[in-house]
Amino acid sequence: VQLQASGGGLVQAGGSLRLSCKAFGGTFSSYIMGWFRQAPGKERELVAQISSDGYENYARSVKGRFTISRDNSKRTVYLQMNNLEPEDTAVYYCNLRYYGRSENYWGQGTLVTVSS
Predict the structure, then answer these.
(1) What mean pLDDT do residues 30-58 have?
(2) In sequence order, which residues have a C-beta less than 8 Å from that of residue 53 and are 6 or more positions away?
(3) For 83, phi and psi rounded to 5 degrees?
(4) Does pLDDT of 29 surpass 90?
(5) Residue 36's CB: how many other CB atoms inside 10 A?
(6) Bridge partners, 22 (sequence order)
(7) What's the whole-number average pLDDT of the chain?
(8) CA distance 87 to 108
(9) Which residues contact 113 (CB under 8 A, 6 or more apart)?
(10) What is the secondary structure of 20-80 as a DSSP string?
């Protein structure tokens, strides 16, 4: 499985970006896909997750501002980020894992920079 992330960039505080993560290879069922982020000097943290049956989970810091969604026909998961804050600046990584399996797949990371 390979994950290709895109959509990062530079945006002013209050602005919006949409990240995309497309999965190549493997199956696209019984999965949990998510977005994690890592800011300089900090540990990688979960931002949002969505399962193949539509269950969503968000970090408290982004709830109400970010929305995760999926398009199974395109094997793609999206992260719509609204009302961005400078604290959201980080490299964002998409992640895929399957129910009942131990493998963890990661995308290459996409940089989001929010200026104040």
Answers:
(1) 95
(2) none
(3) 50, 50
(4) no
(5) 21
(6) 4, 76
(7) 95
(8) 21
(9) 8, 9, 10, 11, 89
(10) EEEEESS--SSEEEEEEEE-TTS--EEEEEEETT--EEE-TTTBTTEEEEEEGGGTEEEEE
